[in-house]
Amino acid sequence: MIDRESLQEAISICLREQNPNARTCIKLAAYIIILWYLEGEESSKGQADSGSAQSERPVSDMIPALEDMLNEIQIVNPKIYDKYIRRKGRG
Length: 91
Fold this sequence. Notes:
single chain; mainly alpha
């Protein structure tokens, strides 16, 4: 199972990359999103344990982060970005 410490270390490695490429950006975004979800689950478990209503983070909260990731990929590697956009039918 993926834990918070492993994700934080992986994020740190990506952030220290001297010459990040699209793959590094994609990995970094994935690690951050997974960490974001883990933190939401931990928060929900804490609320459930304390007897309060369990809440979930809406997926729409993640959209700005995904848009930022796509913008970074477009800058770092336009070919990968264009391929993704064409595949998704947005271009």
